[in-house]
Design a protein that fits this description.
The complex is a heterodimer.
Chain A: E1 7-12, H1 31-40, E2 48-51, H2 58-62, E3 66-67, H3 77-94, E4 100-105, E5 115-116, H4 127-139, E6 144-148, H5 155-160, E7 167-174, E8 198-203, H6 209-227, E9 231-236, H7 253-263, E10 267-270, H8 280-291, H9 312-330, H10 332-343, E11 346-355, E12 360-369, E13 378-386, E14 389-398, H11 404-420, E15 425-430, E16 435-438
Chain B: E1 2-7, E2 11-18, E3 21-29, H1 35-50, E4 57-61, H2 64-70, E5 78-82, E6 98-99, E7 103-104, E8 110-112, H3 116-128, E9 133-138, H4 146-159, E10 163-166, H5 167-170, H6 176-206, E11 213-216, E12 222-224, H7 225-228, H8 238-250, E13 257-262, E14 267-273, E15 276-277, E16 285-286, E17 289-290, E18 298-301, E19 307-312, E20 315-322, H9 336-342, H10 351-361, H11 368-396, H12 402-407, E21 415-419, H13 423-434, E22 437-439, H14 447-454, E23 460-466, E24 471-474, E25 479-482, H15 490-508, E26 515-527, E27 530-542
Helix pairs in contact in B: 2-6, 3-4, 8-14, 9-10, 9-11, 10-11, 11-13
The chains are: A alpha/beta, B alpha/beta.
Amino acid sequence: MMNTQKLGLVFFPAFDWAISPTHPEREERLLYTRDQIVEEGLLDMPSIREYKPKIATYKDIERVHIGIPDIASLITNAHLVSAGGAIAAADAVMNREVKRAFALVRPPGHHAMRVVHGTRGFCTINIEAIMVEYLRKVYGIGKVAIIDTDVHHGDGTQDVFYHDPDTLFVSFHQDGRTLYPGTGFTNEMGSPNALGTTINIPLPPGTTDVGLHEVLDHLILPILADFKPDIIINSAGQDNHYSDPLANMAITAQGYARLADKLKADIAVLEGGYSIENALPYVNVGIILAMAEMDFSKVIEPDIAICPSQSSSVTHYIKKIIEERQHTWAMKEKLRQEAIIKFGEYWQQTRSIYYDDDGINEQQKETVRLCPQCSGYVTIGTEAHGGFGYKTAYIAIIPSKACPTCRSAAYDAVHRAKKQGKYQHYIVQNKYEDRVETL
Amino acid sequence: MFLGLDVGGTFTDGVVITAGKMVSKVKTPTTHENLLQCILTVVDKVVEEIGSKTFERIALSTTIVTNALIEDNIDQVGLCIMPGPGMNTKEALPVEPYILSGYIDHRGRETAQPRQEEVMAACRHFLACDCDVFAVSGKFAVRNPNHELTVAKWLKQDANPVHTSIGAEVSGSLNFLRRTNSAYYNGAVWRRFNNFASAVEKALTDRGIHGPVYVLKADGGTLPLAIARKYPVEAIFTGPAASVLGIMAMNSTNIPGISLDIGGTTTDIALWQHGAPLFAQQGARVAGYATAVRAFRLKSVGIGGDSFVRLENSEIKVGPMRLGSAMAVGGPKPTVTDAMVVAGLIDFGNRQLAVEAMRQLALAKQSPEEVANLVLDEAVMCICQSITGILTEQAAEPVYRVEDIVHGTGLRVEQIIGVGGAAAGLVPLVAKKMGVTYELPHDGMVANAVGAAAARPTLDITLRADTAEGYYTVAELGIKNRLPSMHFSLHDAYQLAEEHLAQLAKDSGILLGETEMIQSEEFNVIRGFSTVGKIMTCRFQVKPGVLWQSKERL
């Protein structure tokens, strides 16, 4: 049966939830977007079907996250509903009720990393990542591509899938030297077993629709065609807009709508976007129309005259970065083999992670086994300082397709750490058996 | 004395109620080609029965607007819209609109001005097609009516139309598309309704009958005829609304549940909570187009007493078509009513003929009683499926607050109230299948006319205050005023809305009665990390419902 309904829209503005009263993530954020969507009459269109969010379970969340000491104490009902919104969008598409879906929900998620001590970049749990793991568990989806079009680097999503060769994570964003979270440089390409499946495209401030579509046409779309994902997810942040108060880019509603039209994501999930009056109402209507395969040519901001044009130096810079990234993509197999040879059995990184919303400083030491049979088990030692004092944990992660060696080695590592007793919590995220265990 | 009239698809009913008691009950076949005729037949019979020509109120539920649309007997409307940026509305409207400049944004700010030369060109275009009825609709006009009113004024100067429908006056709610469709259909049926209204008034005067005439609306309220003349589109789909109101008048329980109005061809399902019927979250569809006309949440299923019953591949099928009345009363084909007669649920017509009807459907070795039970099972199953459908739809209705998702908004059915000709036979079976109790109000056969007689007059207004911008609007009244103070609170908004509603009721000549708030929202407007104001929206209405509720049977 053909779908007459092209787009499933999960609209959940969480009108009773805020991080704090004057925070950008406050009740008012999607008020004007709701007004615009309802006023346009979009929800009455035969090609659009509105869905109510589901309520995500802790099990759904723990397929991605390890909360310290546990996930329940770190999140609110709003997070369960926003992750549930992404899940409802996934179900609508997978059950073929609609051709594609857009979870226009808040709170957002793309800065939330695998280990969670609190909230960073307005995000506590990663709603796309939770949806991806749900798609894999429930529908057996294999290769996933996530295209993050938020102005901020999707460092949380990158972290969750950094060692996973089956997840292509592409993020374009305003250069991390000029914007939160200060990461997303071109040398962040995935750990050796997954090298090349993380692609960062830092763009200079002042990038317009022209530059963005150059990147899309000559880099992102060809890479997608080459990777051949089973499903395409769009982390649809809207803060590249020329009026956004937290960033310095110059994308318009038309730029976003044409992006949605070309990308043809199966599922889009709202991320950031804080120009709540001048951008979000128009950008969202543009994305909705494009995803519903309707005419979006008339979606133009009333103040479009103030949108700057792109300087030639920006154009030049973008051309260069496209060439570099194309080259890296073409060379990725070779780079991967070189990296595996270079690092031997284990790859390791040490990082400090800052939780801006909660004032938490985390130190992480992450080790991945470069296993020739599977993507390799991961261990993470974490120490966090914040208002709560001091929290530590030692964690092992067993991938869902882990080989027997990695499966038992992961437990051995945690038992060894526990014997040494340097941490407060010892946890195994066993994705092979779909459970989280506290040892 | 209150006279209630309901013009139905088959019959026109009239009842007179005084001091909560029904003193007259009249039925006559509906004369579709001339509705006035059956209305007057009922009025004449009623007057004869009660011996009085003076009524406190004469309330009318008619199919005049519905028929005008079905027969396509509607006027051409010069539809002028100001869509501004956004969706391309062209495909979604019933007629080709004339598109004008001018845009109001979501905060009610004017971001592009309408242009008089364009309006003049629109007039030339529509006058060339002999339009003398216009409709004007602008996006976000409910946030600032100035552009719609300006364009309407220019239209009047240039084209001098007999009527202009204005989007934000027809509905004060967000949804440009629905308001536009409402304004268009309001204009399209305006002449037909007004001619009818004049004919009714004249006929009553000629007969020396006194009493203010009211017209029923789809949301179960009534409007004085003078007001209804301005908003005729509201008088669509009043039949089911009349029946729901009738149930309200006849039933005083607060048990959550459903009502079933089982007539000849259809069963209308409505949902009940706290003793009141639930409204649909969205307006009704008119001729397939979404409008802003408020209506009860109803679902119709093609099962009724006269539903045609036949065998298809050795299986019993029921409805949705009707080929005539039951064989028990000389009809041509087996019907659900025949099955009810054979099963001993009702006593109606000639039982022998009903048995013959069941025999026609019997497979080898089946008795007429067995066939009758199969027919009833099938009919009950169809009704139950639709009940499940409407309950699922209600539960799936989107909500926008965490609290509402986590705690749910579903309805628990505990009771069924049945009215209509075929309710007595079928409702007990449906209730048994669902495991709930049921009630069959005594005068359920004329629930629709009782509803018309008892329906309260209603009005509603939407007040939106934006303290950051410093003004408030009441869309339905075309008001945009400065706020009296910068420290305007939600409580002040409620008070102001109540005042405007009271004034509107007074101007419309209706008794204010009990009012209620049907929507309320308040947001802090934060700019640069400090609160610069609040946006408040509240909607108040004169409470719909019945003028009196029976403690015992009417």
